[in-house]
Amino acid sequence: MSKPRLGLAICGSYCTFDKILPVAEALAADFELTVIMSENAAGTDTRFGCAENMRKRLEEISGREVICSIAAAEPIGPKKLLDILAVAPCTGNTLAKLACGIADTAVTMACKAHLRNGRPLVIAVSSNDALSANAKNIGELMCRRGVFLVPMRQDDPTGKPASVISDLTQLKATVLEALEGRQIQPMLLGAK
């Protein structure tokens, strides 16, 4: 029996990159993994690491070249390349674009192309303004058919009261539930 085809789309929440690598390794054991990176995530060196090293590591994990352009992401829809797509981490910028139907990065194009086939999209929020400017976008996406959220919590309620991050240890469980058309519960987690 073949493995389900999972797209793992990564946005520029650079501080979570160290957390997504072990998650990608675990997912590659159970899914045929294709990695998509936004142009910023794929090309920007930050204090959290070198973009080229991240891309190379993800290519080693998936066994495929990382998709990091709009042109390379567009065939995901017409060719029905994925059974499910997960955006992890999903920044506030990408949340806003998805809520408004904007497809101007490799990740947003992958989402648009994938959703046109009525296939599930999983979102793992990582945003400093999730409970302020992006709260309406999270609400909009929660109401969309075929969109599922990884359980999330405030990561620093005192220092950054509007900041939310999804629990990436629950990404696989969320994906498995979404493949069955169900939202994993609870979506909102208490303090750690």
Structure at a glance:
With 192 residues, the protein is α/β, with parallel strands linked by helices. The chain has helices at residues 17-30, 39-43, 51-62, 70-73, 92-100, 106-115, 135-142, 171-179; strands at 5-10, 32-37, 84-90, 121-127, 147-149, 152-154, 164-166. The protein is globular and about 45 Å long.
Write down the CATH topology. Rossmann fold
Number of strands: 7
How many discrete domains?
1
What would you give as the CATH superfamily?
Answer: Flavin prenyltransferase-like
CATH architecture: 3-Layer(aba) Sandwich
The largest sheet is: 7 strands, mixed
Under CATH at level 1, the class stands as Alpha Beta
| Ends apart, CA distance between termini | 38 Å
| Percent range for β-strand residues | 15-25%
**Overall 3D geometry?**
globular
Mean pLDDT: 94
Give, in order, the helices and strands: EHEHHHEHHEHEEEH
In terms of structural class, how would the helical and strand content be classed? alpha/beta
Q: In DSSP terms, counting alpha (H) and pi (I) runs of 4 or more, how many helices?
A: 8
Instruction: Specify the helix fraction band.
Output: 25-40%
Spans with pLDDT under 50 lasting ≥5 residues? none
Rg from C-alpha positions?
A: 15 Å
